[in-house]
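Figure 3 (text version): structure tokens given as input.
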């Protein structure tokens, strides 16, 4: 078989000097749009100085053009209600995500309008200068017109003309790859080394009629992460989770730190969730059918609140207790029988909910939970012997069953910070001496008259009347 012909890529004839940082240019364009929306004065100053052709980014150019159509409306500038209308119209006409438009309009306006406009126009004018002349220095009449970079946040297509970037199309304007420069030469030199690395793919789009006519270079970065994100989005679609709580756009999904996936009939959480969404702070999965906590749950290293109430979980993996930033852990209503000793690692924990589980004891390591302020052990099998390890001195709110009341009466002197006691499904009455011995007020609004199936009520005692 004859060896394929080697194509040598010579970029020396391209404009090599980088004139402006692309990330800085993007921020300037976003600030200009935000400033236009703030006031009639800024709108007039900006629109008198620049036009649509001055913008490098497709998104900001289209928003600029759309905003100009509102210039005659009196109540337009700074009107919060108008933002939604603008975002919806741009999505309908230009397919720009509404969240993208809203975020741009909510961005900080320019502090020094004259300085940033001067910088913006300086690059724009130099960029526009190269569009008119013919390509006199091209290699055999060929030129490299396009570079496409794709990473976990989206795709970025940059069009170069005479070596200077003419336009950038991006699916996510708030994150730009560091390889993307305003000159073709610099961009190509930064992406070329990826051809020798795993988890990256550098390919060329070639003219079918002329293999030496390279139309575009395509770099795909972090292929493994892109695949995991696609699998995660597919899981969201399969479970019919609404896009407003589980975005289908990769960048928006990566940027989400609060997930409220309650009542979704979920049977499992895929490994990709924890691997890819490591910046999640708040995760609630109430009222699903989840049987196992992912073993890689420890990847959610920044998680502060984790609520797994009313599922079918039996076992707590050791990795769960590596989430050392957790302040709230709710395991109510599962099938858990044992709390591992590793729970003592959750030193930031303020709130621990273990109710409605078949747990019969607490490990001695709960003594390490010195920041624990709320503990719910209602409808469990936990007895007095385990409670001696709990730092009762710091507890502000506690919920438990009638059978444990004598223990807490006996240790009332240790409950120095107690604010609220819940006796759920209690046989006691307000007038009982043991209730009054606690020295707390009856919260009549929460003292339930309704009874459970055994005829028991709920007693709430509080320092406050």
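Below: residues designed for each position.
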């Amino acid at each position: 078989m004859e060896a394929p012909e080697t194509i040598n890529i010579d970029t020396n004839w391209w404009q090599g000097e980088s004139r402006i940082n692309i990330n800085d240019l993007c921020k300037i364009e976003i600030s200009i749009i935000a400033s236009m929306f703030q006031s009639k004065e800024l709108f007039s100053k900006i629109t008198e100085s620049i036009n649509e052709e001055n913008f490098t980014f497709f998104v900001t150019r289209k928003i600029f053009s759309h905003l100009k159509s509102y210039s005659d409306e009196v109540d337009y500038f700074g009107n919060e209600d108008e933002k939604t209308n603008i975002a919806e119209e741009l999505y309908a006409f230009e397919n720009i995500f509404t969240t993208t438009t809203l975020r741009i309009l909510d961005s900080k306006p320019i502090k020094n309008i004259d300085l940033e406009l001067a910088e913006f126009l300086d690059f724009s004018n130099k960029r526009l200068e190269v569009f008119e002349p013919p390509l006199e220095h091209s290699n055999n009449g060929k030129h490299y017109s396009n570079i496409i970079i794709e990473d976990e946040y989206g795709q970025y297509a940059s069009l170069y003309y005479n070596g200077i970037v003419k336009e950038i199309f991006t699916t996510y304007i708030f994150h730009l790859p560091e390889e993307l420069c305003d000159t073709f030469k610099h961009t190509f030199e930064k992406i070329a080394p990826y051809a020798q690395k795993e988890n990256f793919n550098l390919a060329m789009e070639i003219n079918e009629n002329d293999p030496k006519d390279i139309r575009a270079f395509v770099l795909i970065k972090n292929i493994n992460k892109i695949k995991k994100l696609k699998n995660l989005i597919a899981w969201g679609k399969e479970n019919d989770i609404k896009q407003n709580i589980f975005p289908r756009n990769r960048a928006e999904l990566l940027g989400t730190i609060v997930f409220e996936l309650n009542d979704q009939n979920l049977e499992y959480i895929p490994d990709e969730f924890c691997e890819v969404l490591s910046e999640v702070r708040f995760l609630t999965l109430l009222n699903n059918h989840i049987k196992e906590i992912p073993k890689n749950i420890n990847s959610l290293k920044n998680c502060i609140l984790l609520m797994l109430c009313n599922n079918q979980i039996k076992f707590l993996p050791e990795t769960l207790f590596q989430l050392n930033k957790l302040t709230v852990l709710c395991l109510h209503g599962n099938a858990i029988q044992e709390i591992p000793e590793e729970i003592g690692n959750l030193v930031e924990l303020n709130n621990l909910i273990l109710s409605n589980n078949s747990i019969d004891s607490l490990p001695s390591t709960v003594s390490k939970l010195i920041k624990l302020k709320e503990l719910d052990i209602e409808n469990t099998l936990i007895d007095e012997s385990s409670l001696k390890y709990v730092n009762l001195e710091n507890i502000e709110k506690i919920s438990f069953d009638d059978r444990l009341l004598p223990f807490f009466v006996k240790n009332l002197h240790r409950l120095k910070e107690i604010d609220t006691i819940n006796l759920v499904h209690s046989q006691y009455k307000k007038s009982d001496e043991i209730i009054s011995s606690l020295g707390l007020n009856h919260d009549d609004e929460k003292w339930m008259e309704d009874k459970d199936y055994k005829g028991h009520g709920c007693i709430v005692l509080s320092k406050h009347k």
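Confidence is low (pLDDT under 50) at residues 1-9, 135-142.
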